[in-house]
């Protein structure tokens, strides 16, 4: 392609030796293999420790996702206290603690307490010195029990009920009408109270 008309002449620089400045990634397969071997070595050194830390079962945020149960950041201090696990020893046995989280419902708290108790029942703590086991270490035949590194599964978010016949009371119940009435009551509650108070004042003034 040649030059034509009264345009600016090209001033391209093609002597920058760009090949030496390109970042290559030829060691990707080798690095992948080394990472895999490092993970295997670390897992072997950890022994029968669980693959992941234990986290609480929490509901997703907002109306869109609160039907689902997912893993939370950590257990609350109230949940640990009810399950009989101290805050210090929790992290040592693979339980994550989140001191900022608060329990907003009794059902959610009970669910996580049961989760902690189930984990505690399955837990085997190998003593560092077999001759001098410390408080909380597993002793006796429990040390020979079969171990698993799989984590405790999250509970089912739905409680399925057995099929049954609809009662006459349920058949007569008008859900939409009830919701609208409750919404109207909540909306006009302040105005109704103010009107009632004003009327009471007027009646008191008339009696005088």
From TrEMBL:
Any one GO biological process: translation
Family annotation (Pfam families): Ribosomal_L13e
Listed InterPro entries: Ribosomal_eL13, Ribosomal_eL13_CS
Annotated source species: Phanerochaete sordida
GO cellular component: cytosolic large ribosomal subunit
GO molecular-function terms, A-Z: RNA binding; structural constituent of ribosome
Region spans: Disordered: 184-208
Similarity annotation: Belongs to the eukaryotic ribosomal protein eL13 family.
UniProtKB keywords: Ribonucleoprotein, Ribosomal protein
Record protein name field: 60S ribosomal protein L13
